[in-house]
Write a structure and sequence with these properties.
This protein is of the alpha/beta class. It is elongated. The chain starts with a strand and ends with a helix. The chain contains twelve helices and 15 strands. It has a seven-stranded parallel beta sheet with strand order 8-10-7-6-13-14-15, with helices on both faces. A five-stranded parallel beta sheet has the order 2-1-3-4-5, sandwiched between helices. A three-stranded antiparallel beta sheet has the order 9-12-11. It has two domains: 125 residues, Rossmann fold (3-Layer(aba) Sandwich); 193 residues, Rossmann fold.
Amino acid sequence: MKKIRLLIVDDSALYRRVLTSHFEKDARFEVVGAAQDAYEARDFIVELKPDVITLDLVMPKMDGIEFLGVLQKHWPLPVIVVSGRLTEDPQLSRKALAAGASAVFSKSGTSDTSSLDKLSDLVVSVVQGKPLPKIKLGSASLLEPKPSLVNSNKIVVIGASTGGTEAIKEVLVRIPPGCPGIVMVQHMPAGFTASFAERLNMLSPNLSVKEAKDGDEVKPGTALLAPGDFQMSLVKKPGGYSVQVKEGEAVNRHKPSVDVIFNSAASVAGSHAIGVILTGMGADGAKGLLKMKQSGARTIAQDEASCVVFGMPREAIALGAADQVVPLLKVADAITKLLG
């Protein structure tokens, strides 16, 4: 089997030696370099072309979070953050994952051989694209829904396009525990939605997020993302809802289409639904959100100031489809208040 080419980036000479020594003993890896800062790492990346990087967060000249942003723009590679600050500041895990890290690992877990072996297995999983364990980052609750809502027929339906990957993330990380099931459409081609759902799953402390498959049940505490190049609809079932995922014609030039999921929610959920339209180009979802409102659903649109592209929300607002128009960082709060 081809060895995984690994670059270690850490300003501590001790940890560079510890990690290098460990990975060099593992037949699955080839340590191609050990850089002491982001600038040295950049040169190594260009010259040595590693498959994966372990990255410290606290470094001179450029910190790890900033370097992650540069990497994602110029040299998108799998990155596992290995830092001693993660236990001191749990929010750093969320920041690192949001900046593009594939996974995080605390240096407190590198104190013995068995813990280092776990790091090795994590690196292999990231490179091979295997599912990663969900990271608990602490509660991001704003308001907690009443327990009675959890077992109701409530459902939250979200649609987005351009700029929506970050917008959906900002909503989900703020969703409190006990929220009813969520279904989502983000305009995205096939092959990208699975990894996007996995990233959302790692970032969202109170939700289990996955790419939807036909027949998946919509359960409290879960969020289902429509797969690229398929249409997803909401289906009523005894005691709740499931999703239908199938090939079909593009609607508003999109597969998946926001109008498709909104229209189905209007038909099967009616006043039990909350519809949310976020940043995006065009008008997909505007008519569907209006249909949801006419069926008794409560509806929310992202405001212009916080949108990357104020297309879809603007069209929905112009149709009178939005009950509320709120900034992105207040969308989760608005959803929670409607539930409570």
